[in-house]
């Protein structure tokens, strides 16, 4: 996968975290698919994104060369989808052709409607 080239000002090595959000339709059960958007701030098109759940890698995607984000699509009922929290991160090539990783995004938690049992 090609990496986006990023040139840093001297002494500035921090890469800001991406934004993350749950994309509609929102799941109503653990069998429903989950769609999570992850977008890099500023001018970082074509970055490589990683989605984590509980600190474990769930999926890797690269943004198209003219876009700053991706949407992760997780299958309902699979081991990659349930629970959370989910975080994402992106990477680019920085100074001296060294890979640079952003900070992790804020968490996104997936919750499902509570199942109610009626006593008749």
SSE diagram, text form:
Layout (H helix, E strand, L loop, with lengths): L18 E4 L11 E6 L8 E6 L2 E7 L6 E6 L11 E8 L5 E3 L19
Antiparallel strand pairs: 1-2, 2-5, 3-4, 3-6, 6-7
Task: Describe the overall structure.
The structure is a single chain. The chain is mostly beta strands. It is built from no helices and seven strands. The protein has strands at residues 19-22, 34-39, 48-53, 56-62, 69-74, 86-93, 99-101. It has a four-stranded antiparallel β-sheet with strand order 4-3-6-7, with no helix packed on it. A three-stranded antiparallel β-sheet has the order 1-2-5, with no helix packed on it. Strand 3 and strand 4 form a beta hairpin. The radius of gyration is 17 Å and the shape is elongated. 26% of the residues are buried. The model is unreliable at 1-12 (pLDDT under 50). Residues 22-111 form the C19orf38 Ig domain. This is Protein hide1.
Structure annotation, total helices? 0
Tell me about the largest β-sheet.
Answer: 4 strands, antiparallel
Can you list the strand order of the major beta sheet?
4-3-6-7
End-to-end distance, in Å?
59 Å
Residue windows where pLDDT falls under 50 for at least 5 positions: 1-12
Q: What integer is the average pLDDT?
A: 80
N-to-C order of helices and strands: EEEEEEE
Helix content: under 10%
Portion of residues in beta strands equals 25-35%
Structural class, from secondary structure content? mainly beta
| Record field, number of beta strands | 7
* Apparent shape: elongated
- CA gyration radius, whole angstroms: 17 Å
């Amino acid at each position: 996968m090609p990496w986006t080239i990023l040139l840093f000002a001297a002494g500035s090595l921090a890469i800001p975290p991406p934004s993350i959000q749950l994309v509609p339709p929102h799941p109503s059960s653990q069998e429903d698919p989950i769609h999570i958007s992850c977008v890099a701030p500023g001018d970082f098109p074509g970055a490589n994104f990683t989605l984590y759940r509980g600190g474990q890698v769930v999926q890797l995607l690269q943004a198209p060369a003219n876009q700053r984000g991706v949407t992760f699509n997780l299958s309902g009922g699979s081991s990659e989808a349930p629970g959370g929290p989910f975080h994402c991160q992106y990477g680019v090539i920085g100074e001296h052709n060294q890979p640079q990783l952003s900070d992790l995004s804020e968490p996104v938690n997936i919750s499902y409607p509570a199942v109610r049992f009626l006593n008749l």
